[in-house]
Structures are given as C-alpha cells and as structure tokens.
Amino acid sequence: MTRLSIFTRSSRHFLRFYSSRNVFSPVQSIAGPLDLIEVEEFRARAFLPERPLRITAPNAEGASDWIPAANKWFTHDFISNESQSSHTGRRILSYSYLSAFASTILPYELTTPVDISKTNLSAESYKFLPVLMQYLRNSDGKTFHRFSAPLSLFLQASSAPCPWPPSLYIAQAQLIDLPSILQADLPTPFLVTNAGKGDIYDANIWMGIPPTYTPLHKDPNPNLFVQLTSRKRVRLFRKDVGDAIFSNIKERTGHVGLSDVIRGHEMMEGLESEYTKEAVWGEDITGRISEGEGLETVVGPGDALFIPKGWWHSFMSLGNDVTASVNWWFR
C-alpha cells in the first residue's frame, strides 16, 4: 500500500512507502551490548569481510549503560493529575539537562510544503511559526531547507504536546562542535578505535521530529551507527545492486550529475527525491531486485549497525517519538 502525507501530525507531507512483499533478507545480528563485543569477533564477522552487522541491545534500557547521552539527554513524558504522576511511555528530550546548552549552534534540515504558513496549525504551532520562519527566510529551497540555529529551537519544537514541525532534523552535527560536556556523553566505542587503523574520519549526531528520512547513498568509510532513542528502519544494498538502482534513478531523472553522497540537496526535493524514495521504499521494489539482493533491519534504542564502506543504504524513522542517533565513520 502507499499512503499520502501532508504537513500535519496525523498525516505527513511526503509519501510513505511500504512493500507488499518482503524481498529483503535480515541483517546478521549478534547480541550486545556494543561495548562488550570482542574486537576479533567483530573483525571476523563484519569488518574484514565487509558485511553489515547489527549488534542488539540487551534490554529496554538500550545504550544507557555505556553511552551517557542515552540516559541524560532523554526522559519520559509525564502526565500529572491530582492523585498521581505517571509517564506516557513517550520519550522526549530532557529540557532540564539540555537547556544549559541551548545556545549551541547546530545544522538543521526541514522539509515543508511550498508555503508552510498556509498549513493548518494548532494554536501552539502557530505561535512557534514566526520563530521558525526567521531561519527559513533566507533558504533557497522550495520545500527542502538547510539552516543553522541554536539547540533551543529543537528544544522548543520537540517539547510541545504535539511536537512540530514534523521532519525538523538536526542532521549530521559534528561531535567536535558540541560543548565538551555533551561530547563526553558520547564516548567513542572501543570497536571504532581498535577494529581498523584507529582513524576516525568523522562523528555526528542526528536528532529529529518524525518522520525523518535519509535517502539512498554510500559512505566513503566504514560506518558504526548507534540508535539512542526511538527506532529506524534501514535498507542496505551491496555495491553492485546499489549502483544499478542509482543508475536507474539518474536515467529516469535525466540528471547524470546526481550525487551519491549523503543528503545531497538534489536528493531531498523535486523529482530526484521522489524517484530515489520510490526506488528504495516503493512497493514495486519487489520487481526491481531479486530476493536476497537487499538487506533490511530495524534499530532500536542501544542497537548498533555496522555499515561497511561502499554499501548503499537508506534510513526511515518509525513511530512518533523524537528520534536520535550517533555515528562514527572510521578506518
């Protein structure tokens, strides 16, 4: 089935796709936590043969035992009445902890309708709109926008009873640009520094209001990705399969210069975005790849995913809670 979405909480502004028949094989998995995986086992199972590997969290607490950010940065949303206070099960950012870093400037992305001001908004969202518009004013994009703004923007947007706007995304914010206290909350995994040469190419955080999406791309270095809260679905293709899918996208769009790098602007709006999303997440993918040519998995809190160099992949958020993850590109 295909579900059309627009810019509201109950429905979204872009197409969400679901395959009618699963031709994807599961990613091989081993039980974690990540910080207890032996380097030699990781090298033998994944790093040297260049095979994707999911390392599962041992319990519902996810990565809180070994990544302080998983516990410090997030909390449960509580509902209070006269007799008691209980949490809703919804995970939100911990304003009490992160507000001390509200002035930290971060890179944002946002996908919107052509005219966001004409969408139906709640009273609370309408009040927030002028704050958001000051950052979108100089954007060259029609529906996809990149801008820099303080962390306070995300804290305000995500703390509402109905977080708005959907798809507001702190995308690829480098750890080295964070305050030292927040950097310390995201220690580098032992596997990253010991499985290869010990070189870290880059490390980033990703936090968004669902739905969030990363289009099909491949990385120039091995990637260790860790989900901090909420869940994401990932589809992966080995190099030859991904190359064929990407070549087809370029042929359909007539855009021979289409970039395969992560989150290229042309991949995020217009026909290129539509065709790229359809090629990976559309239900007719069952007619374009054979069974076993693609891998799929879901990463939840504390789960890690190793993506070898050259493997094509795309992420989709699941659920309505704020999603957050961290990754290290290394060699």
Automatic annotation (TrEMBL):
<protein>
    <recommendedName>
        <fullName>JmjC domain-containing protein</fullName>
    </recommendedName>
</protein>
<dbReference type="Pfam" id="PF13621">
    <property type="entry name" value="Cupin_8"/>
</dbReference>
<feature type="domain" description="JmjC">
    <location>
        <begin position="162"/>
        <end position="331"/>
    </location>
</feature>
<dbReference type="InterPro" id="IPR041667">
    <property type="entry name" value="Cupin_8"/>
</dbReference>
<dbReference type="InterPro" id="IPR003347">
    <property type="entry name" value="JmjC_dom"/>
</dbReference>
